[in-house]
Design a protein that fits this description.
Helices cover about 90% and strands about 0% of the residues. The protein has 14 helices and no strands. Helix 6 runs antiparallel to helix 7 and helix 8 runs antiparallel to helix 10. InterPro entries: Chemotax_Me-accpt_rcpt, HAMP_dom, MCPsignal_dom, Nitrate/nitrite_sensing, Nitrate/nitrite_sensing_bac. Belongs to the methyl-accepting chemotaxis (MCP) protein family. This is Nitrate/nitrite-sensing methyl-accepting chemotaxis sensory transducer, class 40H, NIT domain-containing.
Length: about 650
């Protein structure tokens, strides 16, 4: 996946609507340009229609005069026809000049224009034939009608070139009116020939009727397209006296088409209907002016729309780009601030005293507020972790000192146990010596007194030794009891350390959860939280190992206390036995006769004493072993406490990487 910065992504997002805006603006401007070009093209074509209409108007008059000239056999309309041809030639020259000057703009109607211009090129030959009376009236009428029809078809095609509704409607009305006017011109030519000849033939009558029908049809078509102003002008022109006279002459021709005798002067007819057709030409000129004005208005509107769309598009682009850059800046600037703070926390000193600006009212302000809340919680967690690690370090140091004291006390107990063992060995040797003396006492009574004295001294020494042994054993028992109490205290300390480790583990777990919620932003802190949790777990395992060792020490200490208590009881028993031995010796001194018997008792007591002292020696040896194990356990506890202290210091070092508020 391609990685992009948020700024680049937002600019890309902004780019698409801008491209869409440019595209649609370009399309709109292109449509307006096409509309402008179409309007200008229609204007050019309308000018062509005006030029063609002017030529048609003169050609229509020439057609009527030619028909009268040919019908009269050249006797009438000779001068008028000559003047009319000059008028027609003037309009033809204007038309040709316009076509030559606007050749490219006439491309939409080029085929129809070429056909009409080709028909127009034959007008000279037709005129020559008509002047020499070598052309029939029907042929003349057909040529002029075909020529005029080519140009009226051209005007009709021009009406089809516009795609604008209003302009197309006006041109269609204009074309329909030109065709209606052409039918009026045909009516003029037809009746001019009929009135000159004085009668209708069947073909001419049918043609005349079809001309009237076509004229009415084109006028109805014109009424369908024309606006109220044009219709009002046409109505005004068609209610003139000339129009009424034409209508009367037309009715007379229709009524008398079989018998003739129209009683209509052809010259009057031609003059009157020409006046009517000239009035229609005024309507035509107004229609052409309206078409030209509409084309100009559409072209100007399209041109204005192009400029307007360009200005609006440019303004929208500028506003969109400026607004987009402002929007991007308003989003990326706080993100850069947040990124810098996170980078400083991840790579720098872990300053937890900084806060983001949460005064914004948008989503970034909400993110900043939640980030500050997270930092506050993290600050509290780290503070509690720092406090807990300090307590763990202090407890570890205390455990270490206690273990050292336990080791020292165990060494002292071991030394005292060795002393007791030595004394027990000496007592055993003394007991053996007593037994030997008792054996020697049987050899002679003379030595009995001395032996008794010696035995009394030995017994007294034994009593003292046994007292000393009892005292030392009691001291050792008290020491071992204190060791047991220390073990209990250490156990309580270990439980405290376990609670601290559990709390540290819980805090580390909470920190890991908060870091997971923070996502990528809390990944660095999640690593620290995992290290804290791992350290807490190692602390828990170490405290559990120490607790096991302490429990073993407590059990073995209790066994040692029990053994020492038994040793004390044995020593006390030995002391009693020694006391009884002293009493026996005193009795020997008083009862020398019973010395042998008493010596045997002393020997027996000495043997018992020897067994007792041997038992004491064995017990003291066991005490020594237990004390040595206790010392070893205390050393291991000291080592574990030292490791716990180092781990607590490492945890303090990790926590110290964060800067907390004082």
């Amino acid at each position: 996946m391609v990685t992009m910065k948020i700024r680049s992504k937002m600019l890309c997002i902004l780019l698409f609507p801008l491209l869409g805006l440019v595209y649609f603006a370009a399309m709109e401007m292109a449509d307006n340009y096409r509309a402008m070009a179409s309007a200008r093209s229609v204007r050019t074509l309308t000018q062509l229609a005006v030029k063609a209409s002017a030529m048609i108007h003169e050609a229509q008059k020439e057609r009527g005069m030619t028909a009268g000239f040919l019908a009269s056999g050249g006797g009438r309309f000779g001068d008028e026809l000559s003047r009319q041809r000059s008028e027609t030639d003037g309009r033809i020259s204007d038309l040709k000049a316009f076509v030559a000057a606007n050749s490219e703009g006439l491309a939409p109607v080029r085929a129809a224009l070429d056909k009409a211009m080709a028909d127009l090129g034959r007008i000279g030959d037709v005129r020559g034939s008509a002047t020499s009376l070598q052309l029939a009236g029907k042929e003349s009428f057909a040529f002029y009608s075909r020529l005029i029809g080519s140009f009226t078809d051209l005007v009709t095609r021009i009406a089809r070139t516009s795609s604008h509704h209003d302009l197309s409607r006006e041109i269609s009305a204009y074309a329909a009116f030109i065709n209606a006017k052409e039918q009026a011109g045909r009516e003029r030519a037809t009746l001019n020939a009929v009135f000159t000849a004085g009668s209708f033939d069947d073909e001419t009558y049918r043609r005349f009727v079809s001309i009237l029908a076509a004229q009415d049809a084109y006028l109805h078509l014109f009424a369908a397209y024309a606006d109220d102003g044009a219709m009002a002008l046409l109505k005004e022109k068609m209610t003139s006296p000339a129009a009424a006279t034409v209508e009367d002459m037309r009715s007379r021709a229709l009524e008398r088409h079989r018998e003739g005798s129209f009683e209509v002067d052809p010259q009057v007819w031609f003059t009157t209907i020409t006046e009517k057709i000239n009035a229609m030409k005024q309507v035509e000129d107004q229609l052409s002016a309206g078409v030209m004005a509409t084309a100009d208005r559409l072209a100007n509107t399209a041109s204005t729309a192009i400029v307007r769309d360009g200005v609006i598009t440019l303004a929208l682009l500028v506003m969109a780009i400026a607004g987009g850059l402002f929007l991007v800046g308003s989003i990326t600037a706080p993100l850069r601030t947040m990124l810098a703070m996170l980078k400083d926390m991840a790579e720098g000193e872990g300053d937890l005293t900084k806060r983001l600006d949460a005064d914004r009212g948008d989503e970034l302000g909400e993110i900043s507020a939640w980030f500050n809340t997270f930092i506050d919680k993290l600050h509290g967690i780290i503070s509690r972790v720092a406090q807990t690690t300090a307590e763990v370090a202090s407890a570890a140091a205390h455990v270490y000192d206690t273990a050292e004291q336990m080791a020292t006390g165990a060494e002292e107990v071991a030394a005292q146990s060795g002393t007791v063992a030595t004394a027990s060995e000496e007592m055993a040797a003394t007991s053996a010596e007593i037994a030997q003396n008792c054996s020697l006492a049987s050899e002679g009574a003379n030595r009995a007194s001395q032996s008794a004295d010696d035995g009394a001294g030995v017994v007294e020494a034994t009593v003292r030794v046994m007292g000393y042994i009892a005292e030392r054993v009691n001291v050792a028992a008290r020491t071992v009891e204190k060791l047991g109490e220390r073990g209990v205290q250490i156990g309580e300390i270990i439980e405290t350390i376990e609670d601290i480790a559990d709390q540290t583990n819980l805090l580390a777990l909470n920190a890991a959860i908060e870091a997971a919620r923070a996502g990528e932003a809390g990944r660095g802190f999640a690593v620290v939280a995992d290290e804290v949790r791992a350290l807490a777990e190692r602390t828990t395992r170490a405290t559990r190992e120490i607790a096991g060792m302490i429990k073993a020490i407590q059990s073995e200490t209790n066994d040692a206390v029990s053994s020492m208590e038994e040793g004390v009881r044995d020593v006390e028993a030995g002391t009693g036995e020694a006391a009884r031995s002293g009493e026996a010796l005193k009795d020997i001194l008083s009862r020398i006769n019973d010395v042998v018997h008493e010596v045997h008792q002393i020997a027996t007591a000495a043997e018992q004493q020897t067994a007792t002292t041997n038992e004491i020696s064995r017990n003291m040896q066991e005490i020594t072993d237990v004390v040595q194990q206790t010392a070893h356990g205390a050393q291991e506890s000291a080592l574990a406490a030292e490791r716990l202290k180092r781990q607590a210091e490492e945890l303090q070092r990790l926590v110290g990487q964060f800067r907390l508020a004082t």
